[in-house]
Amino acid sequence: MLWMQETEQANVVVRGARVVDPSEGIDATLDVRIDDGVIARIGDQVDTNEHRVVDGSGLVLAPAFVDPHVHLRTPGREDEETIASGTAAAAAGGYCAILGMPNTDPVVDSASTLQSLVEAARRDAVVAVGFMGAITRGQAGEELTEMAELADAGAAAFSDDGVPVSSAGLLRRALQYSSITGRPLALHCEEPSLTRGSHMHMGRVSAELGIAGYPSVGESVMVERDLSLAAAEGQQLHLMHLSAAESVAALRRAREAGVRGSGEVTPHHLVLTDEAVRSLDPNVKMNPPLRSEPDRIALIEALRDGTIECVATDHAPHARHEKEVPFEAAPNGVTGLETAFAALYTHLVGPGLLTLSTLLERMSAGPARVFGLDRPRVATGARANLVLLDLDREWRVETFRSRSTNSWLIGETLRGGVVMTIANGTVAYQ
Amino acid sequence: MGTSIRLVHDDLRPPQPSTRRHLLSMADVSRDDVERVLGTARVFASSLDRAVKKLPTLKGHLVVNLFYESSTRTSSSFELAAKRLSADTLTIKSAGSSVDKGESLKDTALTLGAYDPDVIVVRHPQAGAAHFVSRIADAHVVNAGDGKHQHPSQALLDLYTLQQELGSLEGLHVAIVGDVLHSRVARSLVQAFALMNMRCTLVGPPTLLPEGLAESTTDIDAIRDADVVYVLRMQHERMQAGSNFVPSLREYTAKWGITPERLTPGQKVMHPGPMNRGVEIDPRVADCGDALVETQVRSGLVVRMAILYDLLVGGPVGVRALAAAEVA
Q1: B247 is in which domain, residue-wise?
Q2: Is B291 within a domain?
Q3: Is A79 a catalytic residue?
Q4: Residue B3 in domain
């Protein structure tokens, strides 16, 4: 279900790092030795076996991150991102595995398109990458894709991301039919008749700016509908890029009632609010839009209590000329792979809104669990999927491995740097 | 590794706070700024009473008008304002220019920038257009209307009109009536009125009153308490079938149209134009002595002269001397 290029397996010892793996209950200063890409020893003063030694003192070694929501823009917009550049950006951000969204050109709605991506990933991907297939052909919201064949070809999940599945009847069929694949549906929740023509959150700021607003209820009404359908069908459902307090409340209620619903939230929704739109900077324009401070607080609370299990970047590269236009003319989307950890460490862990351990869990074990992927972990015998972090490093966001530069953090100084990423036993970044 | 990691070094300087002064939004304008510009406008107004109306003040300067939306009064007013101050002017309208050929706003702004304009006046259907031009062009930028966002020169000329007609602005109560939701004029006015310690009430159908902007009501009788009734244009394109902001223009007129019966004697009536007579404003109101619509247009000229002067020359001190000396 995940692919990357075959490269040299690491033989390395990380000496004296603070090892943090919330799922394994580890938080201690330890040595970790990796033999041929597999964690061989964890302990004090482990033998180096003549491996390269990385001095981990003052650093944190943790399970590498998993991003369930990345736009790799391939096929169709390789000028914006390729599998090589997107996975290089992921490695630089501490990710060992990412899932690509199917809203490409052509849409990933057939096994043959998916197979071509798998081949490209085997050739070019420097971290493990999986691909979602579309729920409907061409993401047109009318006919189901051949989900069984897509799953056999390796589809990690199904999504019409970018557009909602408008028809409740069709979503019900998708929930029923996709059950044979064992892969979840990942849903973009938006009621088009409430959001048409909008460019930002509807609220006081949109009223002042005179920019057509997307009300919170435009998302939450669809979240409630989709959770009701999941409950009725007894199927699993993943809600992507949640932004509104009302959506979070609906997800919490549904989970308490036993619905198998999960949710994700992006770094930009956790850090920014619609106040940022006053700058009219196209790099704070995305769908769903940045919402109000109470929404942001509700999202942080949901991440903390586990109602939302994953951080997802919704990394959405755009060509420079497409973003160099007035705010209302700009396309939705911002990049995020290279800045996600540092943004959240700086803006949530720093001020005490979230613990480091919870952040690490929601960026790694959480998304792996939701999508049924192997959990990156610090355990003897496990393939090495690790990230070495320097929590004290301050750096300025100004260069990118992504082909696109539409980051909401350009020029910002962040705390928390990635020193090394090991993905599937290979040193993918250092 | 099989793939070389390509570092994209790019000229990604974050937008630097510009040292150049622009007029982009009433949100950036201070009370001192307003008083200075209105003072300058009064000086220019007196100069317009002379036989020779042209002042040499901005001789050798270039003012470019970049209009992506149709406009009669704003574009003519800025053009004439620049000419009265002896600046060279270039007016570019989207129809018939390379904008028609798909040229981006960035490239159009860079192209015009090659002529070294001192001021670029921008009207554009999208919010943020003037801000965008101010980031790429090496000129003072005046926002002459961007989407439904801002129209600061209109707010300044309305303040000038009110001050000339009613004396002090302090404590004046203005009711803004109509389609506030789609009105950049209303947004700039709400900020301008707050800046000058005036009271503002928004009146209109609930679907056209955005929440949180200012005190608002759907009850048209609320206009009776106001010193001034500011009528907004009902835009026909907003009322197309299916948009459902109001059921019909007929019903709008019946509920919120400004008629002589709904006004209190002596109330002043303003409208930014163009008017839809018989829709938002009864023709008897439009033509009555208390309607200040033409005064607003006249104010537009001197206020825009003052805006250009303020951006390019600055301070009020020199104005009196200059205007007096040069007219003499």
Answers
A1: 153-296
A2: yes
A3: no
A4: no
- A-chain residues near B5 (CB < 8 A): 88, 91-92, 126, 401, 429
Same domain, yes or no, for B81 and B213? no
B10 belongs to a structural domain: no
Q: Are residues B91 and B209 in the same domain?
A: no
β-pairing verdict for A237-239 and A26-35:
unpaired
Interface of A with B in 383-412 (CB under 8 A): 398-403, 405, 410-412
To the nearest whole angstrom, how far is the Cα of B323 from the nearest Cα of chain A?
Answer: 37
Contact A332, A316 (CB under 8 A): yes
Read off φ and ψ for residue A169, nearest 5 degrees.
Answer: -65, -40
The strand pairing partners of A21, in sequence order, are A26
Interface membership of A341 toward B (CB under 8 Å) = no
**Chain A contact set for B104 (CB, 8 A):** 321, 324-325
Q: Are A212 and A203 in contact (CB under 8 A)?
A: no
State in words which class domain A64-375 has.
alpha beta
CATH of the domain at B77: 3.40.50.1370
Q: Return the percentage of chain A with pLDDT > 70, whole number.
A: 100
pLDDT digits (tens, 9 = 90+) for B291-312: 999 999 999 999 999 999 999 9
pLDDT tens figures, A270-307: 999 999 999 999 999 999 999 999 999 999 999 999 99
Helix (H) or strand (E) holding B62: strand B62-67
Give tens-digit pLDDT for A103-161: 999 999 999 999 999 999 999 999 999 999 999 999 999 999 999 999 999 999 999 99
Return the structure tokens found at A209: 């700016």
